[in-house]
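ok here's OmpA-like domain-containing protein:
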Amino acid sequence: MKNIITLFLITMTIINGFSQEEFSKDIILHKDRKFNEKSINSDLNSKSFNTWSLSANSGYNMPAGPFTVGYYSAKSNYITSPMVNHFDINLRKMFNTKFGLMLGLGYDHISNTGKSMPFSNNLYSSNLQAVINVHQVLNWEEFTHTFGLQLHFGPGLSFLQSQVVQSSSSFYKAKDFSVDNMYSIVTGATILVKVSDHLALNIDYTINKNFSQQLNFDGKTNADLSNNATGIIYSAGAGITFYLGKKDIHADWFNESKSEKTDDLLARLDILESKLRDVSKNVTAAKLEQSKDVKVDNSKIINNAVSGNENVTNVQARNMINSQYVNVFFDFDKSTVSTGSISVINFLLKYLKENPESKLDVIGYADELGDTSYNKKLSQIRANNVADIIIKSGIDASRLTIIAKGEDDSVPKESEVARQLVRRVIFKIN
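and the structure:
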């Protein structure tokens, strides 16, 4: 049995080097299985993330004009003496992780500042904008899972309410104000800071350009109609985004490439388990022949043990896992589980399924290159990704404990070969 275990450990590395092409052929031969590519993509598109969000912001506005001579509203000291005179609320629907639509409502109070002649008006606005998640388009998840950037653009309709009666309408005279209806183009950018899977902080900067402005922002005189396309108001604000829905994560932060690769690994695991079941009869026959003292080809049995087909006692499997003979290795600065680690994970799954009372520590490491805090996060992500595959393979999450150990300084930092050995996730059975 010791020889079998030793050969298991040696050949595990060889199994990890199986080519992706060979597995791809197996997937084609098992199109009717649960984890085929079509069902995986369908699941990603329809079930994996929330698509609705609601955001609210407050801040200040900066009207650029038009103004009547002697009137203005801009301040030169917004940083030291901020004035809250802008509010907006937005409902957003994402069609995928990158593109969506946003319906917005806003309010701005425009009044005199400094040495301007006194005035006080209100601007109400609405808009429908396209939204692009720049951080998803550019794959920022490769270096951050906290910060995001959105660009938004679209048409709008605004209403400037002036306290000076300029309209000939009896309705507006009765209400003691005038209203200017304006068509607009709205553009802006939003910085997102993820707080949790259902909450984010946001900082927004928006430009609202009017194309049919009849009144100056002060409301005292009519705008120059020959130049009325220059009505512009800037706004900047900060607020909160609430992510709506029952899924674990929103499209803003969903890592699609990670999920595709994870589900692809699950598909390969499913195929590997099928192959193990297919050869079980041969293993049983070999055991019977061995028990009758009949000479058999022991190399075949050993190879089956290496592939996970030969039974290894629970005590032996536990010792191999806890002695760190079973590892998942990673490329430099990467957290994606490679297809070569399928046999390792399958070995763990078999043990956990045969021992339902056992609990597993999933412990992530990184090498010493780079920033220590970054490597700590990297080791956490590596452990999370491995645990995610184990959970999706049918093991209850309550049985797993994820531990981020950060840098492993047990090997020479200068050795490239040695560093490869510590970019890993190890396991401990409790």
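+1. The chain has a mean pLDDT of 77.
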